[in-house]
C-alpha cells in the first residue's frame, strides 16, 4: 500500500503543477508552444502514473493481470474499485495519451486543451478519491 500512496502523491503533485501552468482560455494555450508542450507532457505523466497505480492495486489484490494496459481500468471496475463511468473516461484518456506520445496524426490543440481542463484533471482527482476509499477499507 505504501507504493500506491507514493504514486497518489505523485499524481497530485503533477496535477498541481499542471494546473499552475494552464491558462484559462484556449487562445492563450494555442499561442504559447511552451504551455502546449507542458500540457501534453503532464497529460502523459499523469496517465502513466494512474496506470501504475492501477497495476499496483491489481497486484496487491491478486487480480487477473491485463493483457493490455487499457484493460487495467476494466479490471478495477469489474472488481468494484472504480466506477464504470470513470473506467471508460480513463480508457479514453489512455487513448489520448497514446496519440500525444506517439503523434498518431496531427495533435488537435483544442481537443488536448479541452481534455486537460475539462476531463483529465477532474477524472484524475476522482480516480484518487475512489482509490483512497478502497485503501481505507483494506486498513
CATH class reads Mainly Alpha
Main structural class: mainly alpha
Helix content: over 70%
- CATH superfamily, called what? bsu32300-like
Biggest β-sheet, characterized? none
Please, how many domains? 1
What is the arithmetic mean of pLDDT? 92
Description:
The chain has one domain (2-138): Four Helix Bundle (Hemerythrin (Met), subunit A), CATH 1.20.120.580. It is 80% helix and 0% strand. It contains six helices and no strands. The N and C termini lie close together (9 Å). The model has no long low-confidence stretch (mean pLDDT 92).
Summarize this, please?
By secondary structure, the chain is mostly helical.
Secondary-structure map with pairings?
Blueprint lengths: L1 H20 L4 H6 L1 H28 L10 H8 L5 H19 L6 H30 L1
Helix pairs in contact: 1-3, 1-6, 3-4, 3-5, 3-6, 4-5, 5-6
Question: Which short descriptors sum up this protein?
Answer:
139 residues, mainly alpha, Four Helix Bundle (Hemerythrin (Met), subunit A)
Amino acid at each position: 500500500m505504501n507504493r500506491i500512496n507514493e504514486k497518489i502523491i505523485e499524481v497530485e503533485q503533477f496535477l498541481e503543477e499542471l494546473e499552475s501552468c494552464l491558462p484559462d482560455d484556449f487562445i492563450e494555450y494555442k499561442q504559447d508552444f511552451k504551455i502546449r508542450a507542458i500540457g501534453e507532457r503532464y497529460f502523459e505523466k499523469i496517465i502513466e502514473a494512474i496506470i501504475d497505480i492501477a497495476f499496483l492495486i491489481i497486484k496487491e489484490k491478486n487480480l487477473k493481470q491485463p493483457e493490455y494496459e487499457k484493460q487495467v481500468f476494466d479490471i478495477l471496475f469489474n472488481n468494484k474499485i472504480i466506477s464504470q463511468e470513470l473506467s471508460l473516461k480513463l480508457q479514453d484518456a489512455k487513448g489520448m495519451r497514446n496519440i500525444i506520445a506517439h503523434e498518431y496524426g496531427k495533435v488537435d490543440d483544442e481537443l488536448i486543451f479541452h481534455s486537460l481542463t475539462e476531463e483529465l484533471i477532474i477524472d484524475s482527482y476522482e480516480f484518487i478519491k475512489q482509490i483512497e476509499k478502497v485503501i481505507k477499507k483494506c486498513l
